[in-house]
Amino acid sequence: MRLLVPLVVLLAGALVFTTGACGTGASDFSPQIFTGTYFYVSFAGDDNQVPAVGTSLWGTLTSDDQGTVGSGTVSRNDNSVINGPGPLSPFTHLTGPNGRTIWRIANVDSYEGGVGLDGRAAVLATRITSLSPQVFLLTKQQGAFNNASLSGIYHLAAFFYNSTSTMDGSIWGTVDFDGVNMATLNVTTNTGGVVAAQAPSVTAYNVDPNGRLTYTLSTAPLEGGVLEGGEMAILGGQTTNGGIQILVVLIKAGAGLGEGTFTGSYNAIGLFASNAGPPAWRSVTTLATADGAGIFNILAGRQNEDGVLSANVPVAGPYTVAPNGALTLTPGQALMGAVSTSGQYVAAAGGTAANDNLEMWIFVR
Q1: In the predicted model, is pLDDT for residue 230 greater than 60?
Q2: Where exactly are the structural domains of the chain?
Q3: Which residues lie closer than 8 Å to 124 by C-beta, 6 or more apart?
Q4: How confident is the model at residue 68 (pLDDT cuts 50, 70, 90)?
Q5: What is the pairing mode between strands 282-291 and 182-191?
Q6: Which of 103, 232, 292, 314 is the most exposed place for a label (fewest CB within 10 A)?
Q7: What is the pLDDT of residues 16-25, one digit of tens each?
């Protein structure tokens, strides 16, 4: 069995990440970029087991200005079995002034990604062969919140595994939050290559004063956090036994946006699965650029496909951004998602055509 770190060991209270090289030397160490308390969600998949194991992870972590994560919580869903919440064991990270970050386990570079330069969000993925494909998305916990912190239409992009049906899927569409406690979901799904619009559903949500978010996506209870200002929210779960393992990104709809909103250099993570047979899960950690005029590039980075590490193939393709931020991204097959009003956060999922494979990208700058 390939190790799902930290999925297996964080609850044991014994894991310590040790600091290693990131950049060209000690002068590149700039941990202040990644400081404070963060919500995180994660998805991992291991189809070297029979049956394949999908895992989702959610919780919080707190990082000081010296590169140490000293506390936090962790819960996980392993093929529909819930473990936690439990304490997060301390670990260290090394983050450079450009936001690129590496987390190390037993002196081995194990996770790689990037922190947005304002420190409010981060993305990482596995980068060694002893780990299964896995991605993390983090948002900073700061500010005061209530249910009105989520109000109006949000674009949704998600990637999931149903361990009961052993089918992977992606989701794209919208959620309309009423600012009180109810939300209306309108989405399309790709489940194993079968694309279908889903019937609208109205379910409850709640935002705690610290930004912790709980929301029932159709019938799946999820947990995550809201970014200060409400521009983005993240969710993982499901948080009850049975059902799915899922990672969800919500980006608030804007106005007057366009291709120029999506511009610059981004930290990027990707998730992939085949639409038939074994999932053949793949995670990617890399950089991406967008020119503000309809062309994006996903650069050469690292991918982990079922525990085999290699360089991902660079991809360039077109994109469009509607005035409300709705994004069509085409790195081969078409994906749907959104760009935030600030242009800092981008997420897209698909493929959106019948028989497409499952794919999701998340960009943070």
Answers
A1: yes
A2: 1-258, 259-364
A3: 101, 103, 111, 112, 113, 114, 135, 136, 269, 285
A4: confident
A5: unpaired
A6: 314
A7: 222 333 332 3
d(CA 332, CA 318): 9
100-150 pLDDT, tens digit each: 998 776 677 788 999 998 999 999 999 888 889 999 999 999 999 999 999
* Total residues found in the chain within this entry: 365
Q: What is the pLDDT of residues 262-319, one digit of tens each?
A: 999 999 999 999 886 666 899 999 999 999 999 999 999 999 998 899 999 999 999 9
Which positions ≥6 away from 360 have C-beta within 8 Å? Answer: 157, 158, 159, 170, 247, 270, 271, 272, 335, 347, 348, 349, 350
Question: pTM of this prediction?
Answer: 0.92
Q: How far is CA 176 from CA 151, 223, 297, in A?
A: 7, 17, 31
Taking only the tens place, the pLDDT of each residue in 167-213 is: 899 999 999 999 999 999 999 999 999 999 999 999 999 999 999 99
Whole-number Å distance between alpha carbons of 130 and 117: 30
Q: Is 18 helix (H, G, I), strand (E, B) or coil?
A: coil
CB 12 within 8 A of CB 89: yes
Identify the CATH number of the domain defined by range 259-364: 2.40.128
The predicted pLDDT at position 277 comes to 63
> Rg for the chain (alpha carbons), in Å?
18
Q: Which residues contact 8 (CB under 8 A, 6 or more apart)?
A: none
Residue 303: what residue type?
A: Q
CA 206 from chain center: how many Å? 20
Nearest to residue 264, comparing CAs of 286, 292, 287, 285? 292
Residue 126 token pair: 């596995």
Break the chain down into helix, strand, coil percent, rounded to 5: 5, 60, 40
